[in-house]
Amino acid sequence: MHAPALRRLVTVGAAALAAVGLAAGCSRAAETPASSTPAQNTTPAAELRLGYFPNITHAPALIGVAQNFYAEELGSDTTLTTQTFNAGPDEVNALLGGSLDAGFIGTSPAINAFAKSNGEAIRLISGSTQAGAQLVTSPDITSPEQLKGKIIATPQLGNTQDVALKKWLGEQNLQIGEGPDKVTVQNIDNPRTLDLFKQGQVAGGWLPEPWSSRLVDAGAKVLVDEKSLWPDGRFPTTVLIVRTQFLQEHPQTVEALVKGLQRSIDFATTSPDQAKTITNDSIKAITNSALAPAVLDRAFTELSFDSDPLASTFPQLAKDSVTAGATPTETDVHGLFELTALNSVRQADGKPAVNAAGLDKQG
């Protein structure tokens, strides 16, 4: 009953998004946010509008769409409509603007969406991908000091990699800006970053997979693997968020979405070769460009897929947004998580429940 989802990609109108704004929000307001506890309503949604990126870090989204895992779990009563994005802030605009119901997204935009709506508009319902981001540069750069006077790219202002780079630069006592003693950070679409790197117009970028691997394939070297900055090398790269109102009105549909995601993660983990092929075919269908085998293989070794969102890392991630200048004040992330559906799905599959680290309740 569902046409292949990759043929149903739609774009988000810029005019509809402009009013939402890109700037990250401040701390949650004092008022109590609307409860996100699933209501008694069990009516499935007529449509679920799902967003994701054509990136390896979003492989569980790509796999689930291509293999019809989401469509099968949603059932014939709910139509799956998909949209693709290049970076998190644009997807946040779509969610807050009401043109998207759920989305795979980076941690920084997820926190910012929560802050911009005073803790009201979205809930984080699952993890998806861990690790898979690196600072890759021209091979002549072998130390942080050598970044002075260079241009380093990130996908978009305030996105997860933009925050990670700016925080790290601050820790290295490197100033951001123009001039020979500063590091210029430019927000550039990932495909354009690759082109500019090949032309020698940027020195590198802090990028998600497969783009870090694509620059490595073009001659870049890894200066910083973000895994080295986190305990046990584990940090959330991609999570799944949903509009709070949609969650309240259609908890059955949200649980079906999470079931589809868990199937996708299990498939990627148990059938990695097939997962690579499906992911690459999906990226080609969206971008008209497939990944070289060496790039695909490297990208998949740099990350892992898990529905655990690593909730305990989010207070630190909120601090990092302030350090990086993405938010003016630290966001209180209490109330961001709603893991009821996820833990129901995990326990039904014989997997341990994940811990919300107390962030499923208001602070």
TrEMBL record:
Q: Which UniProt keywords apply?
A: Cell inner membrane, Cell membrane, Membrane, Signal, Transport
Is Membrane given among the entry's keywords?
Answer: yes
The subcellular location is: Cell inner membrane; Periplasm
- Cited Gene3D superfamilies: Periplasmic binding protein-like II (3.40.190.10)
**Signal peptide stretch:** 1-29
One GO term describing the cellular component: plasma membrane
> What family is it from?
Belongs to the bacterial solute-binding protein SsuA/TauA family.
What name does UniProt use for this protein?
Answer: NitT/TauT family transport system substrate-binding protein
